[in-house]
Structure formats: structure tokens, C-alpha cells
């Protein structure tokens, strides 16, 4: 198999088609469904798990953020995480301490608890691998699934595409990039770390959303593919409606990357039939957002470029970040 996510067809064969049902389990393993949800006497416990494989110096921080983002995309308020840290032979205490400091800082930022975990040095990995299990809760009426998108829903995206990917690349290749970025753009990318959480918009949007998905591996193309596959619907997205900062454009051009296939934690994809209300509320709460397209009954997923070219999204893309990290 290629680097990146395991293909949907293989997951369907070995996992999704074999899941057992239960009246107390409201969200099961499915395409693009990042959380499980269990009904516990009227309130829903929501759980998720995420690995960090390309976070480099920010892996500890990102391990908390991405797990909590998955919870927020299900409408759940994060409460805590369990974290496994696997280090390759030769790792020092300083490296371990750096990771744990970042994990604690991220937990404090989101006002959640580090509930436990596991750590070891092992020959099974060649660089640090961090896997976090997130735990949250939500009232049943606010639980949101990835597969709830309806024809006619508008597609809303928060912030700018490429936040996480560009932040990782900038921190890894700062010296290479200093000649193409001006001081304003450097400061903008450094500020991305404050925008990587989507918990705030998730708590707002859950009242309006038919589906939500944080834009992670595979970028915007990956997120809309998973939403449409999970919902058995299609979509049309217009490039000229997408917010893409000049800093993101410059870094992607430098590395010859497609920004729409780049990991983008910090951006949430939301489908809703109340887009005007949602957009106004997000902006009032200081969250940039824009409508970029619409969910369709027909199965095609179409990306309309600025030149008018129609690009069909027929599979889950390999994330662009793997070309350079």
C-alpha cells in the first residue's frame, strides 16, 4: 500500500462491513467518521484516536489538537486524552520532556486533562510516534456525523486552507523559506499555531450543521471526499471562493505542492442549510469563514478551478506533505 491513509475499499472490506450494531452505539466505524459515540443515559460519550506521523518538532502539541478537533467535528466538548509516545533507540530524556511539555501546554490551552497513557523506547519506530485517544461528551441533539450532508446544503470552510501543513513545513525548512517570505508572512505563519484548534467553531456550528469534518490528512480534497462518500452524495466546490493566504500560496509554490491536498488542521468543513446564519455567527465570534460550494444529489465531486477547469475528486488523495517530510 502507498504511504498515507489505508484506501477506503480496504477499510470497507476488513472493518466497516464487519462492525457489530448496538442500540447504545450511535456512531460506528465508517468512511470519514473519526469518532465513536456511545449513549450513556441520555448524554453521549464521544471517543476518537489519532496518530501524529509528520509533526516533527510540534508533534506533542499537534497530538492533542488533532484529537480534540475530531471530537469537535462530532459536536462534542473535549474533556481529556490518553497518549502513547513511542521513541526510537537513541532518543534522549530531553526529547521526551519536550514532547510531554507540548502535550501539557496543549491540554492547558484547551482546558482538558491528560488522563494517562504509555511511553517507551522501541525498535519498532525510526522517529517519534505519538497516538492520542480523545474523550468528550455532547447532548444527543447536538451530535454531528460526517455522513449527514444533504443535497442543497452549502459548504462552509473556516479560516484558511493549509494551516497545519504550512506551519510544519515552515518550522522544518525555515532557512530555505526566508528568501521567499516577507516579515509579515513569516509572522502570519508563526501565528498559525494559535489557529490549529477547531473546538470553538465546532461548538458554535453543531447547532447548524448537517455534517462536520476537520480538514486533516488529504487536505480539502480529502475532507470533501470523505464527507461525500459517508453521505452518499456529491459536491461542487469553487476555487475562487476559497480563502488562501499569500503565505500558504508561496510555500506551496516553493515546494510544488497542491494546497488543496495539504493537511489543514485548524480549518473545519461544515455542511448546512442555514449557511447565512452560521457564517454571521462565526464571524461575530472572531472566526473567519466562507461558503465555497454546495452538496449535490449526483455522486460527482467537482472542483471548479479559477480557470474554469473541472477537476473530479474520485479518490482519497495522498497528502502533499509526504513529498517533503
UniProtKB/TrEMBL annotation:
Pfam families: AIRS (PF00586), AIRS_C (PF02769). InterPro entries: HypE, PurM-like_C_dom, PurM-like_C_sf, PurM-like_N, PurM-like_N_sf. GO terms for biological process: protein maturation. Belongs to the HypE family. Transmembrane segments: none annotated. PANTHER family: HYDROGENASE EXPRESSION_FORMATION PROTEIN HYPE (PTHR30303:SF4), HYDROGENASE ISOENZYMES FORMATION PROTEIN HYPE (PTHR30303). It comes from the Bacteria. Residues 150-304 form the PurM-like C-terminal domain. Gene3D superfamilies: PurM-like C-terminal domain (3.90.650.10), PurM-like, N-terminal domain (3.30.1330.10). This is AIR synthase related protein domain protein. Residues 32-138 form the PurM-like N-terminal domain.
